[in-house]
UniProtKB/TrEMBL annotation:
<feature type="binding site">
    <location>
        <position position="78"/>
    </location>
    <ligand>
        <name>heme</name>
    </ligand>
</feature>
<dbReference type="InterPro" id="IPR020835">
    <property type="entry name" value="Catalase_sf"/>
</dbReference>
<feature type="active site">
    <location>
        <position position="81"/>
    </location>
</feature>
<dbReference type="GO" id="GO:0004096">
    <property type="term" value="F:catalase activity"/>
</dbReference>
<dbReference type="InterPro" id="IPR018028">
    <property type="entry name" value="Catalase"/>
</dbReference>
<feature type="active site">
    <location>
        <position position="154"/>
    </location>
</feature>
<dbReference type="GO" id="GO:0020037">
    <property type="term" value="F:heme binding"/>
</dbReference>
<feature type="region of interest" description="Disordered">
    <location>
        <begin position="1"/>
        <end position="26"/>
    </location>
</feature>
<comment type="function">
    <text>Decomposes hydrogen peroxide into water and oxygen; serves to protect cells from the toxic effects of hydrogen peroxide.</text>
</comment>
<dbReference type="InterPro" id="IPR043156">
    <property type="entry name" value="Catalase_clade2_helical"/>
</dbReference>
<dbReference type="Pfam" id="PF18011">
    <property type="entry name" value="Catalase_C"/>
</dbReference>
<feature type="region of interest" description="Disordered">
    <location>
        <begin position="402"/>
        <end position="437"/>
    </location>
</feature>
<feature type="domain" description="Catalase core">
    <location>
        <begin position="34"/>
        <end position="423"/>
    </location>
</feature>
<feature type="binding site" description="axial binding residue">
    <location>
        <position position="368"/>
    </location>
    <ligand>
        <name>heme</name>
    </ligand>
</feature>
<keyword id="KW-0349">Heme</keyword>
<dbReference type="InterPro" id="IPR041399">
    <property type="entry name" value="Catalase_large_C"/>
</dbReference>
<dbReference type="InterPro" id="IPR010582">
    <property type="entry name" value="Catalase_immune_responsive"/>
</dbReference>
Amino acid sequence: MADAKKTKKPTAEASHGAGGELHQTASVPEARITTNHGVPISDNQNSLKGGGRGPTLLEDFVLREKIHHFDHERIPERIVHARGSAAHGFFELTESLADVTTAKVLTEVGKKTEVFTRFSTVAGGAGSVDTPRDVRGFAVKFYTNEGNWDLVGNNIPVFFIQDAIKFPDLIHSVKMEADSGYPQAASAHDTFWDFISLMPESTHMNMWAMSDRGIPRSLRMMEGFGVNTFRLLNEDGVATLVKFHWRPKLGTQSTCWDEAVKIAGADPDYHRRDLYEAIADGSFPEWEFGVQLFTQKEADALPFDILDATKLVPEEVAPIRIIGRMVLNRNPDNFFAETEQVAFLPTNMPPGIDVSEDPLLQGRLFSYQDTQLSRLGTVNFHQIPINQAKGCPFQNFQRDGQMQTHVSKGRANYEPNSLSESGEDGGPRADPKGGFRTAAVPLEGTKIRIRSETFADHFSQARLFFRSQTGPEQAHLASAIVFELSKVSLNHVRLRVLANLMNVDEELATRVAAGLAIDLPKKADAAVEPIDLDLSPALRIVGKYPETLEGRQIGVLVTDDADGKIVDALKAAAEGEGAKVKIVALKIGGVTLKGGKKLKADAQLQGAPSVIFDAVAIVASQAGCSGLLKEGAAVDFAKDAFGHLKAIGHTEEAQPLLDKAGVEPDAGVVDLGGGADAFLTPARTRQWDREPSVRILA
Ligand code: HDE
């Protein structure tokens, strides 16, 4: 006899799922859920079974389609720059470059061109953290009326290698090691430093990566660079060499290394969240756009080759002309459809912009188009909405292919054709005047596989960068190399790095060797002896960014019985200057202030350590502070804020917590009894003077 349970007829009660109401309501919902082919679905909770407890039937196309689609939701992540965050916005030209280019995006002053900008780390996978020491991608897609222009840059103006043929080696070396699968999103391991030590040309960029530029505070606080040299072409076909620059309105700012490491645990999405929240709050990130322009003659007079991507042109040598601005003012609606599926191609350029012979750029011109096929799966990736040209729809005779969504009409799919002579649509034709033009660069030479002699100086600009930094920045850079080399297990690699560093700056090499407690080796032979270039203060961060509360977050740790007036005054003053204030408490429900008023918390202490704030305040009562003394997270809150050079405002009653956390009095530790202003002054920046008392730097 069949089991009673099995034979029981399914009823509304017996067949209910998580949502419950399956057979009960007869009303038609406003938006009906359907299959991908539009068939309305009656039950999205239960699969089709042979009996209530029976096996699921193959016939269940609703279930199969849903699971099938889910099984294929993931696409291959980018081989580099897999982890990214993006936003929509606009570019506005403020100064015309009509004398040097015909590209309308650079000549129509006042015109706003839509952009989509994606920032990224390089080495980590799509699910890795936001704050490793790494280069950051800075890719901007301008939807111009003459086709898309993709300026695919980085937050560092030079690159590790000079020739595209070394790119797979570079990336293999920095990614997780091939046998063990770790470390994820980190350059501090054997294979990366092995490669770097054997490739002296990488020394300059590595200086940048080891500097505080490698650990940005926010995506909104990074510079961007086109890196490679490009050309602009004017009406007469005259070419001008150009380097592109983005400068953040909030200034270039960074974290401390110890802070970046801790943020990775506290909030792996720190940068993504920061960008998203800033835009959602209406604090739109903004950058100035600038160009460095050179004639070929001026470029030839430089002491290095402008086609060598391991070299920059100091601003002091060729000033940056600011010609526009970019504002990011809209978050993506859908991460996958936009941020993940966006495809940037350095080959996307409107007429009037052209490439140079930089051998790194030349390789990139092939790679980006090619990689989209493996990532997005079809040659028709340009039809995905985020990649479509806007204001300049594509039209050509390319046809078909997987995921073709464009329904071409007529039979003109070849050219030349004369179909229009009998009234048919003959399709588009090339425009010799208004179409894309290539600079008439004279070429000569023999086919040969060599590196140009003009690329041979690997150390002068690395030296220029290091020596142009302020004291604290030099100390951070040296300490970063010590940290990374301490994670390297191969002593011969450490020694080779040091031997190369001797060519950059002997004092730097000595400091790193001392930090590792190993003997300094002999200087490595340099292909060309480095020279001392004029220092470039423009390469610094410290002392350059504006001291402002704009874009900063202040965490206020509040306890029961605390003085609410202090919190209110601080909040009003800080928010009045553009900061964001978050109330942190032991419990998310908040606290009861002196006088009985309730104050809701924005975050619970365990989930809001001070590393995620730019400055902190501790508004505690005496009893409240006694409670905090028993909570390790509260002690760390104060200790880390101090160690990370942040301003700390506090009530007198919070002093025992500061004492326990080892917070020493200095200009950045401020009693809030004197009013909010005394605290807001140090809160506008980091307390660099404090550093020697909290860290042993190399
Ligand atoms: Fe890239 N790079 N790259 N790169 N790159 C990619 O293209 C490549 C280089 C940069 O947010 C890939 O669509 C080669 C320099 C950014 O989607 C790939 C070489 C600079 C992004 C590729 C370089 C960059 C990429 C992977 C040496 C700064 C992310 C996914 C010849 C100017 C774009 C993709 C985004 C992405 C190749 C060097 C910046 C594999 C072969 C130099 C910002 O095609």
